[in-house]
Each structure stands twice: as structure tokens, then as C-alpha cells.
Design brief:
Blueprint (H helix, E strand, L loop, with lengths): L1 H18 L1 H14 L14 H15 L10 H18 L4 H24 L3 H28 L17 H21 L3 H20 L3 H17 L3 H18 L2 H8 L8 H19 L19 H35 L6 H20 L9 H23 L18 E2 L2 E2 L4
Antiparallel strand pairs: 1-2
Helix pairs in contact: 1-2, 1-3, 2-3, 2-6, 4-5, 4-13, 5-15, 6-7, 6-8, 7-8, 7-9, 7-14, 9-10, 9-14, 12-13, 13-14, 13-15, 14-15
């Protein structure tokens, strides 16, 4: 029955994708992040829905007459250089056949990132995309939170089998990244039932993160929560909610959970933690041997995992790749700060302020929790970068069009950007 449901939904929406390719991005996000076909037990479980949706979306792009222009901001340029560098490291990879297979997978993800950049730049589409991502992964947060409560926290929350987020550590990271998107939706909602529904969803997702019993996720969720308090509007009410709920949630978890989390302090006695150090040492040594290009994709073949997004990139793409990866995250963060500064006092751009700040919080969660998990090529991270770029471009256009009308100067008259690429203002500050 599940197989039939997923297949009918995809087949029913595909014709619309040919005429409205942005719907293809939404459908691909649902399939990619929720992986509903992985919850089926028949033919749909391994059916290439994502590939078919991507093909239909690209055909829709060719047929569509709307503007399809890539905003060439700093983040997009660095991302292009990073992809090119991954190609270079793949050519000189230690495990050539494995590396090319992984490179193909990464490129497919990046194709959808660039399609997102081309056609998802309107307010409506960005908000819809936030909804679909939040609900797709949030499904496992709500489900996992209920499961943790019903079982007293005695079992681990896992993600959908055979996906990026199948393990407990992986789903913990993904849930941390979508809690801020839930907060964004809550801030935009006018209906009381959506606002309160998102409050419940965030609390259950928080419980689910604890239920993963992932120590990296615990560190990440604490960092994410602190930054969400700092970055969110209505800080006081949100702070009260956290202060009241956090002690209850932590005290609810069983003693076995507390014992496992306490090993963070005694990592020398934990085999899992020492295995991480071994993987990090391997990555660093590999980068010293091949400082420019590293070992290429799958350089960690034979080891369980890189156990860190940073050491994964370092070991596979060298110091150059790590510099590009860190620059990509830093530039995205700075763009969020720019958007927040420019939109804080403009009522019609409050949604941009909320989205940019919550995307910053998501990236903080990824940066902290990802330090203990090898998910450097997780498509959600790159999708969030695309959303930040599009939000920034939307603000630039709005302020340029309303210069002198909103009370906030978009771009000072003596310091206007000198170039326009693909019809989009390029802002490098």
C-alpha cells in the first residue's frame, strides 16, 4: 500500500513539474529528505524516484519561459571552485573507481542545488521550500519524539534505512538542522494552530535528538539552541520555553542515557571516541602526505567513517579543499548577518530576517554536530546555502527597487556594485 501511495503521488505531480519546474524542486526535496519510499516494503523501496524527478525538473527548465539565472554571489563562486577541486582530487584519487562513484553522487546533489538557485528565488517558493524540508525531516523528529516518550528513552531513534540520515548520529544531525526551520515557520504563521503545532513539533524533535543517544548530537543541539535564542525574534518567550522544558526533558531520559552522555568527559576510556581520534589522525596524516589534493573520495576506505565533516574534507581533498569548505560556510554565515542587519527594521522583509537568522542557526548546528560525523556532502547543507543566497539576492533587489522609500538605503549611491551577472546584482560585502 505504501509503495502504491508514493508512486501515485510522484506520478501525479510529475506532469505539473514540466510546466512548473519549481514544483520539481519541492518534490525532489520530499523524496530526498523524507525518503518515503524507504518506508515501503515492495518495489518502491529501491525505485529511482529522485533521478526521475530531477530529469523531469530539468526538462521543465528547458520548457519554461521564466527567468532562470544563477545568482553569482561569493558563496556560489566558492561552491563552483569547490566542485572543480573535488573533480581534480578525484582524478588523482587513491581509490579511483570508488572515488568516481562518490563524485557522481555528489555532482547529482549539486545539480539540484544549482537548479534551486535558478528558480526558487521568490518569497512564496522559499517559504514553501522551508516547509517541505522541515516537514520531511520533521516527520522523523515528531515520530522519534513520540517513540522516545513511549519507550522511556530506552531505545535509539534511527533514520530511514539506506539514506544519508539512516543512523542515529546522522538523523540527530539532520533533526538539529531543521528545528530552526520549524522556528522560522512558527514566526511566519498567522494561524494559532500552526504556531502551537510548530511548538509541539520542535519539542518532540528535541526529544527525538536526545532519543538518538548520539553524543555529537547532544553537543550540537545545545549549541543550536543557544544560537537560536540569540538570533530569534521574541527571545524572551522562547527563552522561557527552553528554560521550562529542558530540565524536564533531560530528567525524563533514563540513567543509561545519562551514563552514555557522561562519557563525553571521559573520552579516553571510550572505544568509540578513540576510534574517532584514529580516523582524524589518519586524515591529517593523509593531508600531510598529499597536502594539495588529499586522498580523493573514499580515502577512508577500510575505516568505518571519517567521523568529522572537517577531517573528511581534509583527508579527501587536502588543505585546499578544507579551506574552500570552511570558506563556503563562513561566507554563508556572513551573508546571513548582512541580511539580518539590512532587514531588521523593515516590516515587509521580516520574513527575510527570520529566514536568514534561522539558516545561520541551522548552519551552527551542522558545524558543531558535524565535527563528530562524516556528512560533509549532506545535501541539506548545500540546500541551506542556496536558500541563504536567494534570500540575500531577494533583499538586494527589494532594497534597490525601494531605495529612499523604505527608510533604509539599499546600496549607498557612491558605492554601487559595478557588475551585474545574469541579471542579478552581485554584492561582495
Amino acid at each position: 500500500m505504501r509503495d502504491l501511495f508514493v508512486t501515485l503521488v510522484v506520478l501525479g505531480v510529475l506532469p505539473a513539474v514540466l510546466f512548473q519546474p519549481w514544483i520539481g524542486v519541492m518534490l525532489w526535496s520530499w523524496i530526498g529528505y523524507m525518503s518515503p519510499h524507504r518506508l515501503a516494503y515492495g518495489f518502491a523501496a529501491n525505485f529511482p524516484f529522485a533521478m526521475i524527478i530531477a530529469l523531469f525538473t530539468m526538462m521543465g527548465l528547458l520548457m519554461s519561459k521564466e527567468d532562470k539565472k544563477i545568482p553569482w554571489t561569493r558563496e556560489v563562486i566558492v561552491l563552483c571552485v569547490f566542485i572543480f577541486w573535488m573533480l581534480v582530487t578525484t582524478i588523482f584519487a587513491m581509490h579511483e573507481s570508488l572515488a568516481w562513484a562518490q563524485f557522481e553522487k555528489v555532482v547529482k546533489i549539486q545539480i539540484m542545488t544549482f537548479i534551486t538557485l535558478m528558480i526558487m528565488g521568490s518569497k512564496k517558493r522559499l517559504i514553501y521550500l522551508a516547509w517541505i524540508i522541515a516537514l520531511s525531516i520533521g516527520f522523523y523528529g515528531i515520530k522519534g519524539g513520540i517513540f522516545t516518550i513511549l519507550t522511556g528513552g530506552g531505545f535509539r531513534v534511527q533514520g530511514p534505512y539506506g539514506t544519508f540520515i539512516g543512523g542515529n548520529n546522522e538523523i540527530g544531525l539532520a533533526l538539529i538542522m531543521i528545528i530552526p526551520l520549524m522556528r522560522f515557520i512558527q514566526l511566519q504563521a498567522k494561524q494559532w494552530f500552526i504556531r502551537h503545532g510548530m511548538t509541539i513539533a520542535m519539542l518532540l524533535t528535541f526529544v527525538a535528538v536526545l532519543g538518538t543517544q548520539s553524543r555529537g548530537a547532544l553537543v550540537g543541539v545545545v549549541a543550536m539552541t543557544l544560537f537560536m535564542i540569540l538570533k530569534s525574534r521574541k527571545k524572551f518567550l522562547f527563552l522561557i520555553l527552553i528554560v521550562l522544558s529542558a530540565p524536564v526533558l533531560f530528567s525524563f531520559m533514563p540513567q543509561t542515557w545519562h551514563d552514555r552522555m557522561s562519557t563525553i568527559q571521559n573520552y579516553e576510556q571510550d572505544k568509540s571516541a578513540m576510534g574517532r581520534f584514529d580516523a582524524w589522525r589518519f586524515a591529517f596524516n593523509k593531508a600531510l602526505e598529499r597536502p594539495l589534493n588529499g586522498g580523493g573520495f573514499e580515502a577512508f576506505a577500510g575505516l568505518t567513517d571519517a567521523h568529522s565533516i572537517y577531517f573528511e574534507v581534509l583527508g579527501e581533498h587536502g588543505f585546499v579543499g578544507l579551506a574552500l569548505f570552511l570558506s563556503l560556510g563562513a561566507l554563508t554565515w556572513f551573508s546571513g548577518g548582512w541580511v539580518a542587519k539590512k532587514t531588521k527594521k523593515i516590516e515587509e522583509l521580516k520574513w527575510c530576517y527570520d529566514l536568514a537568522t534561522m539558516l545561520q542557526v541551522s548552519i551552527i548546528g551542522y558545524a558543531v554536530s558535524g565535527a563528530f560525523l562524516g556528512l560533509a556532502y549532506f545535501d541539506l547543507f548545500y540546500h541551506l546555502i542556496a536558500m541563504m543566497v536567494l534570500t540575500k539576492v531577494f533583499v538586494i533587489k527589494h532594497l534597490a527597487e525601494n531605495d529612499g522609500k523604505t527608510g533604509v538605503t539599499a546600496i549607498e549611491k557612491n558605492n554601487k556594485p559595478r557588475s551585474r551577472l545574469y541579471g542579478v546584482v552581485r554584492l561582495d560585502r
